[in-house]
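Retro notes
What went well: the complex prediction finally ran end to end.
Inputs used:
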Amino acid sequence: MAGEKAAGEKKPGEKQPAEKAPAEQKTSQKDAGEKKKKVKKHHASRNPVLARGIGRYSRSVMYARKALYKRKYTAPETKPRATIIKPVGGDKNGGTRVVKIRKMPRYYPTEDVPRKLLSHGKKPFSQHKRRLRASITPGTVLILLTGRHRGKRVVFLKQLGTGLLLVTGPLAVNRVPLRRAHQKFVIATSTKVDISGVKIPKHLTDAYFKKKRLRKPKHQEGEIFDTEKEKYEITEQRKTDQKAVDSQILARIKQVPQLRGYLRSTFCLSNGVYPHKLVF
Amino acid sequence: VFKRFVEIGRVAFISFGPHAGKLVAIVDVIDQNRALVDGPCSGVRRQAMPFKCMQLTDFVLKFPHSARQKCVRLAWEKENINEKWAATRWAKKIEAREKKARMTDFDRYKVMKAKKMRNRIIKHEMKKLQKMSSKKGK
């Protein structure tokens, strides 16, 4: 069993049904024609299980069954690089020094950390599944409920990688720029603008919209607050992107009567208006 | 004092229950509280129904008591009850109420703009009339 691991390039199939074997042989023969180095698919275990952890055959019998006497594995001729040669800079300039690529650990804990138990299905945020409500499709008019643009009606463009919604006023209509909005804090109306032909630039991603914060405490405590961005400045790129997207959308908005005025207005509740009774 | 009576052939509007909003014809009276009712052209099977959930309309059909569904349907279609009903103010009010409830956010905006415009025009005319009458008074 230990010997098989060294040979494996493909994933070893633990329980492959017998019918697959002839099909695999065909592909492996074809592959053998294309690339002679490719390993054939692995055989199922030749040691039937009697109980968990106990095989039918002993070590020596298995050696014979797996024909390990025929298989010879040699170590690779060239070892991977262990050290690298770097030039010496700074005070003792000139000359070279030898640096290890894989270094010894610089800290050994006094007590061994116990192994963590295996957990299942706990993914980092970047791998989470993103969902989008069925009522939100490209071109839907959304009502923002939170943030400085609360109550404004806004056009939905697309969902970004983190799940946030890319949204635009358009700027000329209600002063909402290209912005991200959270799905949960938005009401989707049934009004839709036809955005089928609109091309949204590919560089509008979450990284583009992420807030930038400077943190380089070279100075003492008193001087730090100067370097951090207090006042947000609109970059030229944002302006050009805004124009590029809005020009396409404004044309579509003009085609629908009264839609421009609708997007300019804000949503509000008054006496006798109950959100649970409203049809959006 | 009373103009609409429970009689054989009276068309009634069902106000609540599983068949709310449909029209039926009274085929027979069972006892003080229930009637045998049938609505072949409005999707109500022949059944007993309490008077409480029925609201009488102005329409009466002509068929003998306990007439079978076929006769009720013939009478109904002869009188064209469905079209007559749709033309009544009652049915129109119901339709308007439903439309209002179905209004989307955009529709509400359009209605608000239309109302605003209408009220402006009315106010303008009123002011004109007031001015004229005050001038005449002098």
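What we learned: Chain B has a mean pLDDT of 95.
What to try next: split runs per interface for comparison.
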